[in-house]
UniProtKB/TrEMBL annotation:
Residues 416-608 form the Beta-galactosidase trimerisation domain. It is an enzyme of class 3 (hydrolase). It catalyses: Hydrolysis of terminal non-reducing beta-D-galactose residues in beta-D-galactosides. Its EC number is 3.2.1.23. Transmembrane segments: none annotated. It comes from Deinococcus psychrotolerans. CDD domains: A4_beta-galactosidase_middle_domain (cd03143). Gene3D superfamilies: 3.40.50.880, Glycosidases. One of its GO terms (molecular function) is beta-galactosidase activity. Keywords: Glycosidase, Hydrolase, Metal-binding, Plasmid, Zinc. InterPro entries: Beta_galactosidase_Trimer, Class_I_gatase-like, GH, Glyco_hydro_42, Glyco_hydro_42_N. Residues 12-404 form the Glycoside hydrolase family 42 N-terminal domain. Belongs to the glycosyl hydrolase 42 family. This is Beta-galactosidase.
């Protein structure tokens, strides 16, 4: 039987009078929603005083949702340790990068390394799982809420700082090894006692990137183990229910692949207009923020969908928990009106909520859950929209959800033929030494993604260690850190016929963060048939010409050139300090693009794709194609109509086509 996209919402019975859940549940069912997520911040109502639990309000709310026909996703309330707990144990609090304590009064005020907080996290998880783990309305769990939100993935003092030396000792065994691995002879940074090693903050000048990399890895491992403790309890006390987590937009504060292990599926929180305000694609002026202000940029959103869809690929989750319970991924929080947290918070365009929902489906999402049911009438988020306004009347998002036809959205596979590689070690190291104020790991990676999406392709985003054997083309935009084992895997892939495309700074660094002593491309030098010659960080306004066939492209931000030893130059620089040097090179099935320029990248990629029989379709700006379950979603994200292939696409609209 075909299954279709399902809808959900996030609701807060602790914010409203006790009679509301029954009313809301009925309205939610009427609107076509199936699931409601509850209680991620409700610790102070669950346990108002140490050890004294008050469940009646939540019992009644869950029963009311059940009577109304809703299924419930419950959360562990650990993002918000209550005031009494912090008062009793202030050492739970985290530290910022200025070495200051981050105080009680908002949320996420805890250090993942705190043994006391770990104990309380297990205790409250046990309590809530014991109470509701087998409740028939409860179908699954969300751990905590948005790991690392508000820069809380890393605490730079207190419990984390205290635990860091032991983590290093377990990793390196001896201080000699640590000093060698980090290159501490540079600037006499050699340690003679583990107690001397601190978090890499408040230094006179920039920290050692190897120090930064290990601190980030250490903090990531803390989140993974913190969550693993909750998952173990939920598995034991809530059999047959799924466990997921709501990850964030372009969050860099931990290794998501590591932390996602052990979940049944991954969820993420999609706030398109806020995301665009913070993260405009590079090489583009601020105009893009204005152009897409009321919808967000399709590729920034699409990137996150594809990232989270691929996160658990190849790993066994528990799968479906029962008839009709989707196995994910979910959008756990979908913007359905204005957000409150960006520098500017425009009202979304008419049709945007539908467009976001359709896009989520086409990128592989099984459930879209709108944040939030009713706009908050108190505290930090009163300016944020919900499906209902503050006065409980339906807001515009509600009307758009009501008009959705879920039978347009059958579940099934996203038939991506291209894989794009992404990993957090490369991200951390790249951004630790960007060498350019206008470049970053995300910018470089997303530029390649945009080039692929502009060609009408569906893309799987995967970790470089994933099984890549099914793909004809694998694109690795910014794999700056590479292991010898990964180099061997790339050689095997290329030998089997897969086309590999690498961007600048590929294989520049070892897994420890130093450069390969044989220079870029380290263990991939033979495979690529070249070595780095020069790199150039281009300030705004400075460009470097690249000649490719008949075309000339103006690289911005970054350009690097190569010494050839087996590869041939497909494109060369013209003029400037890199004049005549190789800009794009190829040996066998392996291509490296050394210049940052989206059209150049798109041109090189489209030739490779066509060579292996993948058809490409050059799409107008803001028009996107996505395929799922035998259907094609055609979307126009522009605030104006677009003529394309004999069709007139209305502004901010979509059509689902067969085939
Ligand atoms: C998310 C968060 C929600 C709410 C929302 C507002 O990051 O999980 O609790 O704050 O943002 O957009």
């Amino acid at each position: 039987m075909t299954e279709y996209l399902q809808l959900a919402t996030c609701d807060y019975p602790e914010h409203v009078p006790a009679d509301r859940p029954a009313i809301y549940a009925e309205q939610q069912r009427e609107l076509g929603l199936t699931y409601v997520r509850l209680a991620e911040f409700a610790w102070s109502r669950m346990e108002p005083r140490p050890g004294e639990f008050e469940w009646a309000w939540l019992d009644e709310a869950i029963d009311a949702y059940q009577r109304g026909g809703m299924q419930v996703v419950l959360c562990t309330p650990t993002p918000t340790p209550p005031a009494w707990l912090i008062r009793a144990h202030p050492e739970i609090l985290p530290y910022d990068e200025q070495g200051r304590v981050r105080e009680f009064g908002s949320r996420r005020h805890y250090d993942f390394a705190s043994p006391i907080y770990r104990e309380h996290s297990r205790r409250i998880t046990r309590a809530i799982a014991e109470r509701y783990g087998e409740h028939p309305a409860v179908v699954g769990w969300q751990t905590d809420n948005e790991w690392a939100c508000h820069n809380t993935g890393r605490s730079y003092g207190g419990a984390s700082a205290a635990a860091f030396p032991a983590w290093l000792e377990a990793k390196y065994g001896s201080l000699e090894q640590l000093n060698t691995a980090w290159g501490n002879v540079f600037w006499s940074m050699e340690y003679t006692d583990w107690a001397q090693v601190k978090p890499p903050i408040l230094l006179v000048t920039e920290p050692n990137p190897s120090h930064v990399l290990d601190y980030y890895r250490f903090c990531s491992s803390l989140i993974a183990s913190f969550q693993a403790e909750q998952i173990a309890i939920l598995r034991e006390r809530s059999p047959g229910r799924f466990v997921t987590h709501n990850f964030m937009i372009f969050e860099s504060g931990f290794d998501h692949y590591e932390v996602a292990k052990g979940l049944d599926f991954v969820s993420w929180d999609n706030y398109p207009t806020g995301m665009l305000e913070f993260f405009a694609p590079s090489g583009q002026s601020d105009d893009i923020k204005t152009h897409f202000a009321r919808t967000g940029h399709p590729d920034l959103i699409g990137f996150n969908h594809d990232l989270y869809r691929g996160m658990l690929k190849g790993q066994e989750g528990l799968g479906r928990q029962g008839a009709g319970t989707p196995s994910g991924p979910w959008v756990m929080e979908q913007q359905c009106g204005q957000v409150n947290w960006a520098p500017f918070n425009p009202l979304p365009a008419r049709g945007a909520v539908q467009l976001w929902t359709a896009q989520a489906w086409a990128h592989g999402v099984d459930v879209v859950s709108y944040f939030r049911w009713r706009a908050a009438t108190m505290a930090q988020e009163v300016m944020h929209s919900g499906l209902l306004r503050h006065d409980e009347t339906p807001d515009r998002g509600y009307e758009e959800v009501k008009a959705l036809k879920l039978s347009d959205f059958p579940l099934g596979e996203v038939p991506a033929k291209v894989a794009l590689l992404h990993d957090y070690d490369s991200l951390w190291l790249y951004d630790a030494q960007k060498h350019s104020a206008s470049m970053s790991y995300w910018t470089q990676t997303v530029t390649y993604y945009m080039a692929l999406r502009s060609l009408g392709l569906d893309v799987d985003i995967l970790h470089p260690d994933a099984d890549l054997s099914g793909y004809k083309v694998v694109v690795a935009p910014a794999l700056t850190l590479i292991s010898a084992e990964q180099a061997r895997q790339f050689s095997a892939l290329a030998a089997s016929g897969t086309r590999l495309v690498f961007g600048p700074r590929t294989a520049f660094r070892t897994p420890g963060g130093e450069t390969w002593s044989e220079g870029q491309f380290g263990p991939m030098s033979d495979l690529i048939g070249a070595k780095l010659l020069q790199y150039d960080s281009l300030r705004p306004g400075l460009t470097q010409s690249v000649k490719y066939g008949e075309g000339t492209f103006a690289a911005t931000d970054w350009a690097e050139s190569y010494r050839l030893s087996g590869a041939r130059a497909l494109a060369s620089y013209a003029g400037g300090p890199l004049d005549t040097q190789a800009a794009v090179i190829r040996k066998g099935h392996v291509t490296v693009i050394g210049a940052h320029q989206q059209e150049l990248i798109g041109t090189v990629l489209s030739e490779i794709l066509m060579n292996v029989g993948i058809s490409v379709e050059t799409l107008p700006d803001g028009v996107r194609l996505s395929r799922r379950a035998g259907k094609t979603l055609l979307q126009n994200w522009n605030p104006h109509p677009v003529k394309w292939q004999g069709r007139l696409l209305a502004p901010v609209s979509f059509t689902v086509l067969d085939a």
